[in-house]
Amino acid sequence: MKSIVIFGGAGFIGKHLIRRLAKNGYKIVVPYQKSIQEAKIRLLGVTGQITPFRYSSLHDKRLQSVLINTDICINLKTTYDQKKGIFNETIYKFNKQLLKILKLNKELGMFIFFSGLGVDINKNSSRSVAVFKSEKEILKTIDNAIIIRPGVIIGGGDIFLKRLLSIFKMSFFVPLFGDGSKKFQPVFIDDISLAVEKIINDNIKGKNIYELAGPRIISYRDFYKYISKCLNKTRVLVPVPLNIMKPLISITEKTPFSPLTLEQLRLFEKDNILQNVDKTFKNLDINPQDTLQITSNIIEN
């Protein structure tokens, strides 16, 4: 039975990946530092198939032993939270240290790293810079390296829709960061997990970047209007200039009550769409599902 180590496996994306990969018979190890509900993670597979693994740092000898012997490693850890340290430390240096350990694994079949659309062109985001530096380090270090650059991921339980819907349900006035004209290309979580499954099962070799986005490009303003329509509620969209929001968010993000972080706010500054860097869903023979229909289904349920 092949083994897969998934960093960040207890999160939204990770759970979907585990559920799908477990059906393929893989033995999965989920290293974690922040407390998680271990029992729920174990239940995503059959008895003994999924092993949550608490570690303090990558210096943990037991974790290093697991990494040196795993067949595949997936890293989903690209946090937006800067409260625990600067992004260069939590993202880039973490990946650099992880790669140093994985280089000792002579049988490593594949390393998959989750990045994001536009990290290579978003120079104003310290998080994007750290992620892009990690990408370059990975492609330089690992022979079979897969970079996944997804668009905004939606699906039952995703943070993006969850936060938006709570605002739409509670308030007649809905803040629209910037003028709402920037476009994004949301993608369904099931299509992302299917892509990873195919990449692993097809044993894709070499260095590859996959930009994974849905079939529809839409402005934030139009997306908000669509949510109002699905909820059958009249809502007034209130444009909030980003130069006003930034100083406010920089203060509130240090508290537990902030609706988003400064790095998340920066997503509204530029279009978040395919850049046609390397490969897409087409290269995996996947037709991504319509995310507007998915959004409607989530709201109805």
Describe this entry's structure for a reader.
The two termini are 37 Å apart. Strand 5 (110-114), helix 5 and strand 6 (145-150) form a beta-alpha-beta unit. This protein has 301 residues and is an alpha/beta fold. Strands 3-2-1-4-5-6-11 form a 7-stranded parallel sheet, sandwiched between helices. A two-stranded parallel ribbon has the order 7-10. The chain has a two-stranded parallel sheet with strand order 8-13. 40% of the residues lie in helices and 18% in strands. Helix 1 (12-22) crosses helix 7. The protein has a domain at 3-154 and 186-215 and 273-289: NAD(P)-binding Rossmann-like Domain (Rossmann fold, 3-Layer(aba) Sandwich), CATH 3.40.50.720. 35% of the residues are buried. The longest helix has 16 residues, at 87-102. It is built from 11 helices and 13 strands. The protein is globular. The model has no long low-confidence stretch (mean pLDDT 91).
